[in-house]
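Appendix B, record 7
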Amino acid sequence: MKNFSPKSRAIQTIDPATALAEIRREKAERNLSDFIRQAWPIIEPGTTYIHNWHIDLISEYMEAINAGQITRLVINMPPRHMKSLHITVCYPAWTWVRHPEKRFIKVSYSDSLSRKQNVLARDIIISPWYQQNWGGKFSLKADVNRQNEFKNDHQGMMFSTSVGGALTGEGGDVIILDDPQNPLQANSETEREATINFFKNTLQSRLNDPKTGVFIVVMQRLHEKDLTGHIIAEDLGYTHLCLPAEAPERTVVTFPISGREIIREEGDVLNPQRFDRGVLEGLKKSMGSLQYAGQYQQTPAPAEGIIFRREWLHNFFNPKATPYMQMLIQSWDMAFTKSEGSAKVAGYVMGRAGANIYVFDLVNEKMTFTESVAAVRTLTAKWPKARSKVVENKANGPAIVDLLKKKIPGMVEFNPKGSKEERALSVTPYFEAGNIFLPEPEAAPWVDDLIRDLLMFPKGVYKDDIDALVQGILYLMDKPTVTGPPRGDNALVKESYWRARR
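Structure tokens (predicted):
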């Protein structure tokens, strides 16, 4: 019989179950996705774990954070796709396996929800599975072991609170904002501003090291001016991962570490094993298109539009081959000031030919009073045949009319009736009937932005361009069409008029 050394005999007598457990431990320690698989019975007992590629994707982003490759991250994804269990519960517990000194601050719109997630993280840590594998790495402190805060003997911490909650004296290495706003208060400007102010004025000062400290924002989109909207608009340097329930177009998703690619064709469902197309259609019907678009598609307005429908916005004309206008006007919506939070100034040139209205030009920028006056003068010089200059009787409008009425003919104040939404609804029949024409986008780059704002209205950030457009339509449709070229069928006369107008 062949003799074996003690070392070789020891290797051969390893229990297969022990070897498998060691392999599982190494995989969980190295990979967050495997950690979640193994921890699942602890946090969701009795529920079958269903894996999907987006879990691997988010895990790689978390691993990139721990490797120092990413320090600012926004993740937008639908509810019930494991975002909280993944990022707020499992990720901190997994991080402590190698970095028990890390301090986590977790914030949600609800203190009870934030506490629940913190308790689940602690449940994983004190579980026999975790203790058997990594119990020797650290110990929880008995004197700081509460639902909203617990620490370990390496000075690591997990602290939970709500938006607006107390953070006196607390600092973190990783700050996680998980659903910072209640979906039921999505339309509350007060709540949105409170969330953003807490983010800007309180949380920004709570990183232990501003250079290496991490901010993670994970949420479903609720409004164009929610926290994600603020971060994107202010260009704060965040990596943005957006995972809509249904792919709006063909999208290539690239994993940040492995480089793996997932191709999502238009209409591709993110997690079909749990939310297939039938389930999503049911949610769309029960929630309504607006809520579904924000929470599941991560677009705060539905692709088909809210008041103005997408199918109404396909009437384009060639500016070089338009009919002569029986009436041509300017339509203006002025603002009070030019500041970070102010509205824009919007000014159109629009004309009516029979039953149809053609939109020729648009100025849409933030302006001071002086710049607004100059813009009216410039548009008047550019379009001398736009006889009426219709200005809404709000903000700086009356002052501008008063200043220019003795210098520019046709300065008219327009006093709108009803709310912005009511006025917009009143002109939708003209859009639906195909009476509103926009320039071909190739000839007028602002058309794409206008269509986006029409689809977003009234949920978009800026409404001034829609207000001015609606105002112009109402004015043109209410006035007799007496301004225009000479009557008759003389094509030469009409062409001469059109050249003079341009």
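Remarks on this record: The chain has two domains: 13-295, 310-478. The chain is about 40% helix and 20% strand.
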